[in-house]
Amino acid sequence: MLAMRSVLFWRGIPLVVTSLLVVTVNTENIKTRRKIFQRSAQETALVGHVIQSTQASRDIDCLMDCSREQRCLSFNYKSNRGDGISVCELNDQTLQSRPDSVVPMDGYYYYGPESSCTSDLCLNGGTCRPVIDDPHQRYQCQCLPDFTGERCEDNMADFDINLPARQSASDYVLLGKMPHQLTSFTVSLFVNLTKDVDHTFVSYATPTYHNAIFVHQRASILRLWVNNKQRQFSPNKIDADGAWHHLAMTWTNVQGQVSVYIDGIPKVTVLSVATNNVIQANGIVAIGNDQDSYGGGFVAKDALCGSISRVNIWNTVLPRDVITSLAGKCGNEAGTAVAWKDFRKGATGVSYHGEAKSIVPSACKYP
């Protein structure tokens, strides 16, 4: 860390204040900008990023040169020590952006922006970046891929999709496209049903098969389609009891084996479902209604009534103990073929239709 030494304030005329060098520029043609600089305690300079070199009799004059140059983010200053030369070097980088470029240099002092970052500002592994030229924002958090928010406080998987009581056939969410070809999969989701009617959980359609993967409940019986081949799992179903329930289905093209889990408990395993089939890539995923054609063909009687969350698809058959763990809480896991966070409203490639709503934060709770 660089300690602070001399301090000056500029607003038309220089003043000595605390231990910072401050400038405020406000003209008819320049938006008000306020820069706060701190001076290095040791003789150092930022090298390799000088955009302009001038002579300045005082550091405040060098500061003013920096304030007039839009690209200037920091500066190096060498005062006149009897050789008759004072040097002002304007930089387009800072100690924060190029820490390895600040090196010892006789007679020079580095002046950089006061850092507004502290170790606890950005959460969940986010990186704090100082903002120099915005009077309303002193820092910005660069979040890890799974987080968002001003301080990276929001997990991108922490939401539900709510679908109303079948107002029309147009209430659903689309995600296009799934880039993975599948020879096996695990579908995992949480759902809270409000009516004892038919429900579509996940519909994956390709140009060849509109039921490439279709997980739904019809006539109170859970069903799975793989490449337009159906298997039902009577008497197993998800109850419409106002509570959250976990559902998982696995499939492999080896012997066409399918296993069904409800609330982490294995319910049934069958064979000969789309044996040796391959599920094509680049299809469209729908949540809450069935695609009877590629990206379309929705009807009201197939619509989900309630809320759904944590829909993930893995490109493998997950072991039983992993599925039991997934069912134990509404977590923030991400599938390898389709990840729940990709359904978040505003994410790239996702579209909300009709009365489908994103609910943040998630109300999903199990058990």
What is the first-to-last residue Cα distance? 49 Å
The side-by-side strand order for the widest beta sheet comes to 2-1-3-4-10-7-8-6
Please tell me what the overall shape is. elongated
Which topology of the largest domain does CATH recognise? Jelly Rolls
User: What Rg, in angstroms, do the CA atoms define?
Assistant: 30 Å
Please count the helical segments: 2
Number of domains: 2
Helix content: under 10%
Low-pLDDT segments: 1-19, 25-33
Domain EGF-like: 113-153
Cofactor: Ca(2+)
Disulfide bonds: 143-152
Pfam family, one: PAN_1
Model description:
With 367 residues, the chain is mainly beta. The chain folds into two domains: 37-113, 3-Layer(bba) Sandwich (Hepatocyte Growth Factor), CATH 3.50.4; 160-359, Jelly Rolls, CATH 2.60.120.200. Helices cover 5% and strands 38% of the residues. The chain is built from two helices and 28 strands. It has helices spanning 59-68, 320-327; strands at residues 8-10, 14-15, 21-25, 33-39, 44-46, 50-54, 74-78, 87-91, 102-104, 108-113, 127-130, 139-142, 147-148, 154-155, 160-163, 172-178, 184-193, 199-205, 213-218, 221-226, 229-232, 245-252, 257-262, 265-270, 283-287, 306-314, 350-353, 357-359. An eight-stranded mixed sheet has the order 2-1-3-4-10-7-8-6, covered by helices on one side. It has a seven-stranded antiparallel sheet with strand order 24-23-22-17-26-15-28, covered by helices on one side. It has a seven-stranded antiparallel sheet with strand order 21-20-19-18-25-16-27, with no helix packed on it. A hairpin with a 2-residue loop joins β20 (221-226) and β21. The radius of gyration is 30 Å and the shape is elongated. The two termini are 49 Å apart. The model is unreliable at 1-19 and 25-33 (pLDDT under 50).
